[in-house]
Automatic annotation (TrEMBL):
Protein name: AAA family ATPase
Taxonomic source organism: Ensifer oleiphilus
InterPro entries, per database record: Cytidylate_Kinase-2, P-loop_NTPase
Length: 196
């Protein structure tokens, strides 16, 4: 695919076109299911392109002990952070696409298969067992429960339509790259000259 393709008012682009957009981007939004690798990718992009890394989980959503911030405060914190000129933001939350997508130069949708996402979450849980991972709010000890596994298992069916609708409504001209495999993610990293 050489040219961007608009499907349902979402401007999907291929790896090479996305790499060009990413190289020139000042603001990148990375969305997708938990465990798919969006935080790792976001942090690599932030380091490589000298962008501020913003984690929805750490900076917007959670307070210590897995308590959610009030929605109005969440939105205010997003407004404050997206006012900056250079950032990469990691987190899905279609309910705030109205704020985040229009401000983004490119969206990367990490759309990995659900078994890969579950494996990613379990691997992360083992790695950070009893601790808080860096992209999470302080005091939110890494955990996996049945509800979280169900969330991942049903993510594609329940949330992907909301992601598509939000992208179409709030950013029909914002290029979107879907990463659907680890191989495709590695190709993007190779195109950008980033290590695996």
């Amino acid at each position: 695919m050489d040219q961007p393709v608009a499907t349902g008012k979402v401007l999907y682009v291929d790896d090479a076109a996305a790499a060009d957009h990413i190289r020139n981007a000042r603001r990148i939004l990375v969305v997708g299911c938990s465990g798919g690798g969006k935080s790792t990718l976001s942090q690599k992009l932030a380091r490589h392109f000298n962008l501020t890394y913003i984690s929805i989980d750490r900076d917007i959503l959670w307070l210590p002990g897995w308590e959610q911030r009030d929605r109005a405060e969440q939105r205010q914190r997003i407004v404050e952070r997206i006012a900056a000129e250079r950032w990469v933001m990691d987190g899905t939350g279609p309910s705030t696409f109205d704020l985040r997508v229009p401000r983004s130069d490119v969206v990367i949708w990490v759309r990995m298969p659900r078994l890969l996402c579950i494996c990613g979450v379990l691997t992360r849980w083992l790695k950070y067992f009893g601790r808080t991972r860096p992209e999470m709010a302080p005091g939110c000890i890494e955990k996996v429960d049945w509800e979280f596994i169900q969330f991942i298992w049903t993510f594609e069916r329940k949330f992907s339509p909301r992601i598509v609708a939000g992208l179409a409504e709030h950013g029909p001209d914002v290029p979107v790259l879907q990463l659907k495999s680890r191989g495709q993610m590695q190709r993007l990293l190779d195109l950008l000259g980033l290590p695996p």
